[in-house]
Amino acid sequence: MPETKLKIAVQKSGRLNEDSINLLRRCGVKFNNGLGKLKSEAENFPAEIYFLRDDDIPEYVHDGVADVGVVGENVLAETGKAVDAIEKLGYGKCRLSLAVPKNFAYRSLEDFGGKRVATTYPQILNEFFAAHKINADIHTISGSVEIAPSIGLADAVCDLVSSGSTLFTNGLREVETVMQSEAVLIARKNLPGDLQTILEKLLFRIKSVKAAGRNKYILLNAPDEKLNEIVALLPGIKSPTVMPLATGGWSSVHSVIGENDFWETVEQLKTAGAEGILVLSIDQMIQ
Ligand code: ATP
Ligand code: ZN
Fold this sequence. Notes:
The protein is of the alpha/beta class. It folds into three domains: about 5-90 and about 185-210, D-Maltodextrin-Binding Protein, domain 2 (3-Layer(aba) Sandwich); about 95-180, Periplasmic binding protein-like II (D-Maltodextrin-Binding Protein, domain 2, 3-Layer(aba) Sandwich); about 215-280, Alpha-Beta Plaits, CATH 3.30.70. The chain is built from eight helices and 15 strands. It has helices spanning about 15-25, 55-65, 75-80, 120-130, 165-170, 195-215, 225-235, 260-270; strands spanning about 5-10, 40, 45-50, 70, 85-90, 95-100, 115-120, 135-140, 155-160, 170-180, 185, 215-225, 240-245, 250-260, 275-280. Strands 2-3-1-4-11-5 form a six-stranded mixed sheet, sandwiched between helices. Strand 13 (about 240-245) and strand 14 form a beta hairpin. The longest helix has 21 residues, at about 195-215. The two termini are about 35 Å apart. It binds adenosine-5'-triphosphate and zinc ion. Belongs to the ATP phosphoribosyltransferase family. Long subfamily.
């Protein structure tokens, strides 16, 4: 009997491609992604990777061409396909925003009433306007939305933004957020049991990679008389590891710290007398 394989769809090229491939690699799924390849068999995990256009991924997952896939929440919402959103992946972060030309005297959403708004996300925008009882004229275009006002095609745009620099260089000003988005792992509904088992294995690894990404491993030397103070600054998973150094009166302290309060903790450790502080990235963190 042929081995059951989980078919995983990722973006072929574009903003989500590299991060998706790196995520799978960090999950220990080895595969070759030579340019122009449509699919690739994983060497050491029961999976096949499909390289597709992001817009098609929800449909392929829905229809069973792929079992799971990675897409932006924006694409998932726009296609409206009935698939399960299983896990947010923490990359591909952006927002779908309404923006107007700089000379547009914008005050509130009502100002979009009767205006032509260009977007590649007509479904999401339509729902948004309907929810706010705005009657605007949505123009669906397939790309380069940001130039629509300057060529007279629209009065405003609804487009994906991360830093806002594309809007700015095109003389546009972001005025409302329609939705926040990041990459998400989606799966076909009612996956057969054997595929579900493989998916759970992958999901466990994804969670470990995500947890690791938010944490750092820290090693330092502490004079014994400051040990209590230093240990108190480091929560660790359970508590820090403390080992005596060969040089008397000193200990080595190892711990895991979160990246959010990372610099603050390091400064406090130095003030408390820690020396030789090393900080390492963590590949996986199994919880
Ligand atoms: P494809 O050829 O696969 O259709 P695309 O041009 O539609 O690619 P990309 O521009 O590569 O798509 O964007 C893919 C996803 O990356 C978006 O749907 C969105 O979820 C996310 N993303 C993150 N930041 C941005 C941004 N600043 N602009 C556009 N998309 C972004
Ligand atoms: Zn696309």
